[in-house]
């Protein structure tokens, strides 16, 4: 609940300027808050700290015994029987969090006949794996996955649950959070532990990346967060690591739990689009000049077995669909090789690709910021260079 203490308000309008959502206005020299527009972000409270005229009261849930929740969980995303890399990345950070809290790190695996996966999850850092093996879990369907995961949480009480911010994780995590009435922070880039208060300290970009917000969930459990693929570093697998596999067989999943029916799964027309798993990415920027010229990038990608990426400028121009976009508002990628063609290297683009192992930048402008992160820089017209690269690789690879 938020309210203004009228007697304290001097009508200075600092809160009006501070509110990013336009939810405060002055009426007869007193601040008035539009409760429908207010997101309870707290910016006005900070702006008014001299007068202390704005108060936000957040109720602690008295019905929740926070101390009953123990352990860190990682949702182990698999698709079509393949474990997604983000599961291993989350186990990497989950291991650090669990060790700081001195608790068990568990992976949660939902699927049908994916019994080879628990061992791999243990090799990557899990102490134990909760495994629900059921034909209805073969393909991701939100309602049945939500039911299975909520049942597990209500039975075992983890204090932290992490998901990949993939399309699947972004669909599942908010539903689970809503069902169990807890908080969820999306797209975290850093996770830390406040050991004394056993709080997950979640950092994520806010307001278009102009500031980093640190978020905690003090009154609810579990604390839930999604983390973008390719942000956290997985541990080196330890093949000698042993752990417990807990197959949970008594969760009642019924076909009636599913309101939707999958008639057919159609792969995206562009098979090279799975940027987040790609080892090689060839990306195009505004330097391509027009949509048709993406063929130059596509050809090179095809010959060297890479995926096609893009800057936002090209997506905004309608040259290529948005799921190719790399960067702050696109995908975060970590390929072995990233070739940037005609991309200037704006910070919002760099955020999404600068951890690539090798970056090759091709740009006419020697001062383009992309060269600051490039392993190899080629100052040249991309239309002179990229076709030569394509031909050379084609010959070398016998394609
Ligand atoms: C909140 C917010 C979020 C954003 N999120 C993203 C994001 O997720 N991803 C993203 O990419 N951007 C994002 N942006 C946009 C970003 O700021 C840049 O505008 C964008 O990355 C620029 O794209 P570009 O490099 O293709 O174009 P430009 O900046 O126009 O650069 C084109 C480059 O091509 C070079 N060039 C031109 N012709 C040739 C040629 N023939 N051969 C070689 N080089 C040539 C030029 O020298 C220039 O350096 C975001 C911006 C904001 C404000
Ligand atoms: S900042 Fe505080 S004192 Fe100033 S108008 Fe807003 S509520 Fe009133
Ligand atoms: S809490 Fe945030 S959204 Fe609400 S009025 Fe204050 S600044 Fe605006």
Can you lay out the helices and strands and say which pair or pack?
Blueprint: E1 2-4, H1 14-18, E2 24-27, E3 30-33, H2 43-47, E4 54-56, E5 72-75, E6 78-79, E7 82-83, H3 85-101, E8 105-111, H4 117-123, E9 128-133, H5 142-156, E10 160-164, H6 167-179, E11 184-188, E12 190-194, E13 199-206, E14 211-215, E15 223-227, E16 244-247, E17 280-284, H7 294-304, E18 307-310, H8 312-316, E19 337-341, H9 347-353, E20 358-363, H10 370-373, E21 376-379, H11 382-396
Parallel strand pairs: 5-8, 5-10, 8-9, 9-16, 10-15, 11-15, 17-18, 17-19, 19-20, 20-21
Antiparallel strand pairs: 1-4, 2-3, 6-7, 12-13, 13-14
Bound molecules: flavin-adenine dinucleotide and iron/sulfur cluster (SF4) (2 copies).
Residues 2, 18-19, 21, 23-24, 33, 38-44 line the site of one iron/sulfur cluster.
Number of helices: 11
**What level of helicity do the residues show?**
25-40%
Largest beta sheet: strand ordering: 11-15-10-5-8-9-16
Give the radius of gyration: 24 Å
CATH fourth-tier homologous superfamily of the largest domain: HUPs
Name of the level-1 CATH class of the largest domain: Alpha Beta
Q: Indicate the CATH architecture of the largest domain.
A: 3-Layer(aba) Sandwich
Distance between the termini: 65 Å
Number of domains: 3
What overall form do the CA principal axes indicate?
globular
The CATH topology of the largest domain comes to Rossmann fold
Average pLDDT reading: 92
What fraction of residues sit in β-strands? 15-25%
Extract low-pLDDT stretches. Answer: none
**Strands, total number:** 21
- Give the ligands present: flavin-adenine dinucleotide, iron/sulfur cluster
What summary fits the major beta sheet? 7 strands, parallel
Q: Structural class, please? A: alpha/beta
């Amino acid at each position: 609940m938020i309210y203004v203490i009228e007697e304290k308000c001097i009508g200075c309008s600092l809160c009006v300027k501070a509110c990013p959502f336009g939810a405060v206005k002055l009426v007869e020299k007193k601040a008035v808050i539009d409760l429908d527009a207010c997101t309870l972000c707290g910016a006005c409270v900070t702006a008014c700290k001299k007068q202390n005229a704005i108060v936000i009261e957040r109720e602690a849930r008295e019905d929740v015994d926070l101390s009953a929740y123990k352990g860190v969980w990682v949702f182990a995303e698999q698709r079509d029987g393949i474990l997604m890399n983000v599961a291993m990345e989350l186990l990497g950070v989950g291991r650090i969090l669990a060790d700081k809290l001195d608790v068990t790190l568990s992976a949660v695996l939902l699927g049908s006949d994916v019994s080879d996966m628990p061992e791999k999850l243990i090799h990557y850092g899990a102490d134990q794996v909760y495994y629900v093996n059921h034909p209805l879990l073969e393909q991701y369907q939100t309602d049945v996955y939500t039911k299975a995961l909520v049942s597990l949480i209500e039975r075992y009480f983890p204090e932290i649950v992490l998901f990949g911010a993939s399309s699947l994780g972004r669909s599942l995590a908010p539903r689970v959070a809503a069902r169990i009435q807890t908080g969820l922070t999306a797209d975290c880039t850093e996770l830390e532990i406040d050991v004394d208060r056993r709080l997950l300290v979640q950092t994520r970009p806010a307001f278009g990346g102009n500031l980093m917000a640190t978020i905690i969930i003090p009154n609810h459990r579990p604390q839930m967060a999604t983390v973008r693929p390719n942000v956290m570093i997985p541990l080196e697998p330890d093949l000698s690591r042993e752990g417990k596999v807990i197959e949970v067989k008594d969760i009642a999943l019924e076909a009636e739990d599913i309101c939707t029916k999958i008639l057919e799964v159609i792969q995206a027309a562009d098979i090279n689009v799975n940027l987040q798993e790609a080892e090689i990415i060839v990306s195009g920027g505004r330097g391509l000049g027009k949509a048709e010229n993406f063929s130059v990038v596509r050809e090179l990608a095809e010959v060297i077995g890479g995926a096609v990426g893009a800057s936002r400028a090209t997506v905004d121009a309608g040259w290529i669909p948005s799921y190719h976009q790399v960067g702050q508002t696109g995908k975060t990628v970590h390929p072995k090789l990233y070739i940037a063609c005609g991309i200037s290297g704006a910070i919002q683009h760099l955020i999404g690709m600068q951890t690539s192992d090798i970056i090759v930048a091709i740009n006419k402008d020697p001062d383009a910021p992309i060269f600051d992160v490039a392993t190899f820089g080629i100052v040249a017209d991309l239309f002179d260079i990229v076709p030569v690269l394509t031909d050379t690789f084609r010959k070398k690879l016998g394609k």
